[in-house]
């Protein structure tokens, strides 16, 4: 009995130790993730500060070079004046003094008293003793003159070459862009010489559009670069060597200095006032000052007050700052205090570029202040040549050969550069055939086998090679070659290798909890919403069917679509609970873009799901799985198969991406240039956004609402 008790005690102790070890590992992992996120933000901030300091050093070096040249001119002038004021009757000429043997001996201390034989040599050389005495009285002055003479001659040569180069560059730019004013032209020339590094006229052929984007309009940049690349400078450079071009340029040292905490050395041509602008840090509210000192998030009220202060300071210099200027100021503020003002999720991850929300707040405040001031709201019209140039540029671009689009948005392993070690194309093809044969013989459930997981992981590079090929294959062709990609497990594992995110685990952890937060946000402010949202909330309250987790998640997605004024059919398709894959494909007209087919009496009560792509059902979700698994497969199809977000559901899909999946890459996965107006229903031109404004607004309002209700 004692032995049995001892065995039971050891078993229990072992289980307890294992539980403690697992708990410790989980806690250590959480601490590591939190600290690593903070460390990444600090590294990013330090990197940006280092880049700005490097740019400032380059500018200061160029200014120092210009200052040295100016000092050289002053030295030459003073030297000439002092030389002219000296009594020339008692001083030998420079050419007649330096370089002689007797002159070199004068500076030797041990021979300061002249010997009789030296006097004989001096008299034989035809030089009197009087000049020697003068040299002994003022030796330092003569040596200073000699050094200044050599330095001035070299400075003069370098200055002439630099002046001639800038004159040639200004002449070329003026010929190509005659509409440029003198100040902008001088800024372009100084930038090319001192920053880009143009050392001779032939170097202009290597200038790129990105080198000039901060000084010229896009069409002007393209026109200038294209003409420079086609121009032959050989003959012109010879002519310039013979006849120097005189030009009047503003010295680089006269350009206004950069603020004490700079983020950029140069500003766009239409925002020169940014060089003089200083962020009013000393006028921050006390609560915000404390938040910046401790690295906490800015409270909504203090943040809005600081936005008003910053906009007032901006308008003191520029009455109507444009969106680009607001972007630069927002980037400047966020780079200084990223934890306080940056767009950061509750998990500590950066949203997009990190300053989109602050940029939008600044621009909204500017427009609000100028709402009744017409002269501030009206901007200078674009030049008439812009439309013509744009049309010419478009016709030129249209003739170019266009490759297939590389949709690597949000991916970390979109196109592997090499095959795994020890593999060959033939061996990968053999493994693909083995996997396909296993699927044919054992069916979709074979995806649970360990050897199938290994085969799919080893052939990942082969899968991406086919999916990313040009022209892209159809979904049917991909399914024929890689049938396990059209199972829930196979697609989620591929998504993890592609993006580095376990989407099934992430939805399982966060979907239900975050969906409850969304429901609480809408339920707590019922009178604020329109009739459609209120009607949906009533339907959610009255409907008691379906599992709680599925209903909560589905309700949150539907509420967001109502909030964004997007149609439910752009993501969901409702079908009868008894429908099958064949009946759906036969009876329904399925769209080309992915859809989540909901089987049930209503969307809220659905308990079985299909995924459709390119007009056919591609994935069948096991009845044992929940809505989170179905949503994971639906969303994963956009990334695995290189499918862009549909414009009619872009806001909801981007919310799922950023809020639930936490893919916070800059830009968007929808490049459509046209869209449909939410108000009129007519076709409109769609603006490209780095971070969808309605998604950013909702996430900010949700955070502010939870902060207010928690306090």
Roughly how many Å is the radius of gyration? 37 Å
Number of helices: 28
Low-confidence stretches: 83-156, 234-270, 381-402
- Placed side by side, the strands forming the largest sheet appear as 1-2-3-4
Give the CA-CA distance, first to last residue. Answer: 59 Å
Largest sheet: 4 strands, mixed
Shape: globular
Describe it.
The chain has 711 residues and is mainly alpha-helical. The chain has 5 domains: 2-143, no CATH class; 158-254, no CATH class; 276-377, no CATH class; 425-499, no CATH class; 503-710, no CATH class. 58% of the residues lie in helices and 4% in strands. It contains 28 helices and 6 strands. It has helices spanning 2-85, 94-97, 101-105, 116-124, 130-137, 139-176, 182-196, 218-230, 234-242, 286-294, 300-315, 323-336, 338-341, 356-369, 374-377, 385-398, 425-442, 450-458, 460-467, 475-481, 488-499, 503-523, 531-542, 548-563, 581-587, 627-640, 650-661, 693-710, and strands at residues 572-575, 595-599, 608-613, 616-620, 674-676, 683-685. It has a 4-stranded mixed sheet with strand order 1-2-3-4, with helices on both faces. The longest helix is centred in the first third of the chain and has 84 residues, at 2-85. The radius of gyration is 37 Å and the shape is globular.
Features of this protein?
711 residues, mainly alpha, 5 domains, four-stranded mixed sheet, two-stranded antiparallel ribbon, 28 helices, globular
Secondary-structure blueprint:
Blueprint: H1 2-85, H2 94-97, H3 101-105, H4 116-124, H5 130-137, H6 139-176, H7 182-196, H8 218-230, H9 234-242, H10 286-294, H11 300-315, H12 323-336, H13 338-341, H14 356-369, H15 374-377, H16 385-398, H17 425-442, H18 450-458, H19 460-467, H20 475-481, H21 488-499, H22 503-523, H23 531-542, H24 548-563, E1 572-575, H25 581-587, E2 595-599, E3 608-613, E4 616-620, H26 627-640, H27 650-661, E5 674-676, E6 683-685, H28 693-710
Parallel strand pairs: 1-2
Antiparallel strand pairs: 2-3, 3-4, 5-6
């Amino acid at each position: 009995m004692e032995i049995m008790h001892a065995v039971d005690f050891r078993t229990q102790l072992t289980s307890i130790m294992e539980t403690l070890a697992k708990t410790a590992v989980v806690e250590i992992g959480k601490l590591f993730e939190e600290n690593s996120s903070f460390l990444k933000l600090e590294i990013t901030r330090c990197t940006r500060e280092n880049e700005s300091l490097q740019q400032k050093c380059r500018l200061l070096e160029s200014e120092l070079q210009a200052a040295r040249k100016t000092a050289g001119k002053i030295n030459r002038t003073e030297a000439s004046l002092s030389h002219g004021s000296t009594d020339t009757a008692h001083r030998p000429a420079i050419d007649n003094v330096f370089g002689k043997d007797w002159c070199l001996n004068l500076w030797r201390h041990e021979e300061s008293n002249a010997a009789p034989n030296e006097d004989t040599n001096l008299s034989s050389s035809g030089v009197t003793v009087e000049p020697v005495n003068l040299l002994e009285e003022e030796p330092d002055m003569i040596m200073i003159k000699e050094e200044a003479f050599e330095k001035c001659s070299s400075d003069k040569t370098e200055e002439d070459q630099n002046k001639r180069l800038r004159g040639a560059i200004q002449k070329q730019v003026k010929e190509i862009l005659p509409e440029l004013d003198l100040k902008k032209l001088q800024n372009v020339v100084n930038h090319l010489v001192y920053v880009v590094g143009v050392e001779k006229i032939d170097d202009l052929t290597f200038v790129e559009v990105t080198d000039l984007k901060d000084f010229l309009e896009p069409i002007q940049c393209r026109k200038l670069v294209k003409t420079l690349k086609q121009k032959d400078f050989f003959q012109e450079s010879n002519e310039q060597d013979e006849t120097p071009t005189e030009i009047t340029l503003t010295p680089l040292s006269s350009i206004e200095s950069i603020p004490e905490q700079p983020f950029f050395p140069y500003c766009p041509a239409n925002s020169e006032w940014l060089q003089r602008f200083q962020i009013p840090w000393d006028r921050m509210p006390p609560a915000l000052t404390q938040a910046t000192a401790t690295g906490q998030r800015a409270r909504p009220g203090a943040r809005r007050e600081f936005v008003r202060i910053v906009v007032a300071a901006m308008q003191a210099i520029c009455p109507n700052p444009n969106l680009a200027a607001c972007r630069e100021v927002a980037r400047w503020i966020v780079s200084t205090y990223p934890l306080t003002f940056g767009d950061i999720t509750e998990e500590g991850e950066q949203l997009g570029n990190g300053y989109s929300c602050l940029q939008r707040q600044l621009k909204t405040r500017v427009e609000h202040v100028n709402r009744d001031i017409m002269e501030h709201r009206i901007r200078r019209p674009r030049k008439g040549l812009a439309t013509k140039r744009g049309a010419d540029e478009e016709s030129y671009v249209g003739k170019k050969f266009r490759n297939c689009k590389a949709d690597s948005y949000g991916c970390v392993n979109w196109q592997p550069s090499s095959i795994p070690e020890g593999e060959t194309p033939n061996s990968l093809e053999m493994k693909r055939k083995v996997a396909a044969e296993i699927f044919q013989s054992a069916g979709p459930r074979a995806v649970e086998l360990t050897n199938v997981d290994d085969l799919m992981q080893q052939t990942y590079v082969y899968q991406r090679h086919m999916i990313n090929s040009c022209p892209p294959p159809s979904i049917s062709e991909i399914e024929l070659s890689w049938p396990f990609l059209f199972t829930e497990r196979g697609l989620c594992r591929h998504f993890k290798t592609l993006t580095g995110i376990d989407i099934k685990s992430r939805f399982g952890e966060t979907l239900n909890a975050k969906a409850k937060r969304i429901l609480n946000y809408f339920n707590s402010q019922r009178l604020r919403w329109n009739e459609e949202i209120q009607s949906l909330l009533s339907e959610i309250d009255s409907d008691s069917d379906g599992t709680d987790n599925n209903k909560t998640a589905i309700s949150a997605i539907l509420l967001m679509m109502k909030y964004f004024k997007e149609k439910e059919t752009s993501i969901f398709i409702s079908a009868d609970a008894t429908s099958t894959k064949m009946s759906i494909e036969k009876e329904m007209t399925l769209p080309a873009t992915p859809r989540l087919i909901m089987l049930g009496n209503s969307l809220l009560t659905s308990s079985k799901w299909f995924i459709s792509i390119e007009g056919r059902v591609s994935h069948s979700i096991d009845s044992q799985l929940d809505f989170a698994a179905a949503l994971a497969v639906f969303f994963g199809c956009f990334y695995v198969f290189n499918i862009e977000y549909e414009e009619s559901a872009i806001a909801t899909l981007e919310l799922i991406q950023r809020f639930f999946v936490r893919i916070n890459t800059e830009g968007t996965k929808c490049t459509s240039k046209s869209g449909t107006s939410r108000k009129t229903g007519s076709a409109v031109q769609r603006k490209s956004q780095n971070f969808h404004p309605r998604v950013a607004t909702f996430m900010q309002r949700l955070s502010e609402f939870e902060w207010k209700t928690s306090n």
